[in-house]
Amino acid sequence: MKDTILTVDQISLAFGGVKALTDVSFEVERGAVFSIIGPNGAGKTSMLNSISGRYRPQKGTIHFDNQDVTHLRPNARADLGIGRTFQNLALFGHMSVLDNIMVGRHHLMKNNWLTGPLYWASPAQKEELAHRRQVEEIIDFLDISHVRKSIAGTLSYGLRKRVELARAMALNPKLILLDEPMAGMNLEEKEDMARYILDLNEEFGITVVMIEHDMGVVMDISHEVMVLDFGKKLISGLPEAVMADEHVRQAYLGLEDDEQLQEVG
Ligand SMILES: Nc1ncnc2c1ncn2[C@@H]1O[C@H](COP(=O)(O)OP(=O)(O)OP(=O)(O)O)[C@@H](O)[C@H]1O
């Protein structure tokens, strides 16, 4: 039987007269890497924001892990296991890598990690230690231990993106929303990031919903692809089937033959 972790049903979202999303429905299977593609302004970020709770669609419902989350606030959705990264870096530049990642874990801690250390040898301290161990695991996984004490703002772009991913993972998400995780990266950084996304999906069992413009990456790592165009769903399915679709090739890729498709991204 199909194990669906996310069900988006008939979502419509408008900003004044601008229709960002119109009647978009789709399902994401637990354990999948699901990519959303489409031209600029197609509604991709609006969809991610609707899932995370940042935007409130005027119409439609969103179910996550068998629960109606349509009316839940972003924090409540995060508590249920929806993590995310942003299109533009959203790290605390003046804080260390470790502290940035601990912020991601904050909501999991019963005791506030800022006031926690003030209580002596208390459960709060023990809790912080346990959290630190888990954070160290994530740091090892993403190969950022050499910069764990560095100030986040001083790191290269690729490393900062990885720290952002670490912070999202620290939330212990069942589903992670990635908004253009490879944007602005060189080829090597992109290859690294693709590997980490695959590993967090396979080793940690985290379902991934990702917006990505690099078609090579999308084709390589996605189990399913959905195309948005002018706020509407054009098609979704296996990556090869979507790329072979005539409408997609014309409307989005503007391509005629396979040779050109290879060059995208
Ligand atoms: N907060 C907002 N206020 C007003 N209009 C918005 C807002 N967010 C998105 N829009 C509009 O909704 C439409 C869809 O935008 P969205 O950012 O979701 O597209 P996108 O596919 O993510 O584009 P891009 O690839 O450029 O990031 C656009 O017309 C955009 O201007």
Care to describe what's here?
- There is one protein chain.
- This protein has 265 residues and is of the alpha/beta class.
- It folds into two domains: 1-81 and 173-265, 3-Layer(aba) Sandwich (Rossmann fold), CATH 3.40.50.300; 89-172, no CATH class.
- It is 38% helix and 23% strand.
- It has helices spanning 44-52, 74-80, 97-105, 123-141, 157-170, 187-202, 215-221, 239-244, 246-253, 258-263; strands at residues 4-15, 18-29, 33-37, 59-64, 67-68, 82-84, 175-179, 207-211, 224-229, 232-237.
- The strands form two sheets. A six-stranded mixed sheet has the order 6-7-8-3-9-10, with helices on both faces. A four-stranded antiparallel sheet has the order 2-1-4-5, covered by helices on one side.
- A hairpin with a 2-residue loop joins strand 1 and strand 2 (18-29).
- Helix 3 (97-105) runs parallel beside helix 5 and helix 4 crosses helix 5 (157-170).
- The model is unreliable at 115-119 and 257-265 (pLDDT under 50).
- Bound molecules: adenosine-5'-triphosphate.
- Adenosine-5'-triphosphate binds at residues 15, 18, 20, 38, 40-46.
- Adenosine-5'-triphosphate is lined by residues 15, 18, 20, 38, 40-46.
- This is ATP-binding cassette domain-containing protein.
CATH architecture type of the largest domain: 3-Layer(aba) Sandwich
Separation of the first and last Cα atoms: 36 Å
Instruction: Specify the helix fraction band.
Output: 25-40%
Number of strands: 10
Q: Can you identify the CATH superfamily of the largest domain?
A: P-loop containing nucleotide triphosphate hydrolases
Bound molecules: adenosine-5'-triphosphate
Strand content: 15-25%
Radius of gyration (CA) equals 19 Å
Low-confidence stretches: 115-119, 257-265
